[in-house]
Amino acid sequence: MTKTGPIPAALVSLDALERAGLADPADRSTLEAVAEEFRVRISPAMAAVGSAGVRAQFVPDVRELRVVPEELADPIGDGAHSPVAGLTHRYSDRAILHATQTCEVYCRFCFRRETVGETGHLAEAEFGRVLEYLRSTPAVREVIFTGGDPLVLSARRLASMLDRLEGLGTLEVLRFHTRVPVVAPEKVTEALVAVLDRALPVWLVIHTNHPDEITPGAAAALRRLSRAGVPLLSQTVLLKGVNADVDTLEALFRALIRNRVKPYYLHHPDLAKGTGHFRVTLEEGQAIVAALRGRLTGIAQPVYVLDIPGGHGKVPVGPGYLRRAQEHWIVTDPQGCDHVYRDL
Ligand code: SF4
């Protein structure tokens, strides 16, 4: 048996970041202003990686203080579609459950950065009202546990919530959106995996943005999950200074399929406050996605999507390969060459 030492603590203060060499004491006064505005937490696994593409996601940056009027506190409109506390019901067949606001890391680009933090988990009475709403709304067939990060909850608490959701008898699928298997893989314990292996299918969508996040520990956690038959998808945010180039994304998506994770969504960055330094244009995003199409196997291609600001939903944003030309279509191949196609 391999001997492991105690797991180091997460870095949650500027003092801790400076001691770890992740922040410069010379920047202290400006970073204090950032940390007052947006929470700081870097998990031991991510602090140990420390590469530029990983650090940029978690280490506070003075540019976060630049907020433009178009940036929103709730960019995708969670609040506008919340029938009861803790639940967002935007699309008829599925609803998002905010079981906690806590995360193992606080990402500097997070679109829920105004709400995430150690503010406690969804109270039992609130969960009761969520169950009542779902009971009276059988059109909802899928419940999506999301951020904060639902896998910070104990296996026992999760089992209790999942049992009662299953007991409604109206759901077909349960889904988790989480960074835990990558940023805190030691939390993917056998007890947690056992909770996810149940009668109703539980799908896991892993949020990961850089190939350096797929450490041996993360790979082992993903293996534990796939062995239990949990279908694994990924979501990635396109971020300048982290992954907004073809080589980095190719390496990430290849690493994911090697670990039995199907790349699902590539998100255009949301208009969250103080995140302008991460933002790319839609045209830049489309060019990267077009280049990936020529290079990567189909199973490693995510869909490039934009969450329309204000809560109007998520749509694919290209690039397009098809355009109308009078009586026929012009189709562009992955190398950029056009071809005529006619409907018969
Ligand atoms: S909700 Fe997700 S993206 Fe936001 S801070 Fe938590 S882990 Fe990061």
Summarize, please.
This protein has 344 residues and is of the alpha/beta class. Helix content is 30%, strand content 17%.
**Relevant CATH superfamily:** Aldolase class I
Q: Over the alpha carbons, how many angstroms does the gyration radius reach? A: 21 Å
Shape: globular
The chain-level mean pLDDT equals 93
* CATH architect. name: Alpha-Beta Barrel
User: Which fold name is given in CATH as the topology?
Assistant: TIM Barrel
Broad structural category: alpha/beta
Beta-strand residue fraction: 15-25%
Query: How much helicity do the residues have?
Result: 25-40%
Described by strand count, sense and barrel closure, the largest sheet is:
9 strands, mixed
Strand order of the largest sheet: 1-2-3-4-5-6-7-8-9
As residue ranges, the low-confidence spans are none
Count of spatially separate domains = 1
Number of helices: 11
**Total beta strands:** 12
Small molecules bound: iron/sulfur cluster
Main CATH class:
Alpha Beta
Order of helices and strands: HHHHEEHEHEHHEHEHEHEEEEE
Distance between the termini: 65 Å
Please give a structural write-up.
The protein is α/β, with parallel strands linked by helices and about 350 residues long. It has a single domain, classed as Alpha-Beta Barrel (TIM Barrel), CATH 3.20.20. The chain contains eleven helices and twelve strands. The protein has helices spanning about 15-20, 30-35, 45-50, 50-60, 125-135, 155-165, 180-185, 190-195, 215-225, 245-260, 280-295; strands at about 85-90, 95, 140-145, 175-180, 200-205, 230-235, 260-265, 305, 315, 320-325, 330, 340. Strands 1-2-3-4-5-6-7-8-9 form a nine-stranded mixed beta sheet. A hairpin with a 2-residue loop joins strand 1 (about 85-90) and strand 2. Helix 6 packs parallel to helix 8. The structure holds iron/sulfur cluster. Iron/sulfur cluster (SF4) binds near residues 107, 110, 112, 148 and 149.
